Amino acid sequence: NGDGNGLYQFNQPSDVLIDKETDSLIICDANSRRVVRWSRRSGTTQGEILIDNIACFGLAMDEQRYLYASDHVKGE
Question: Across residues 36-61, what is the average pLDDT?
Answer without folding.
Answer: 88
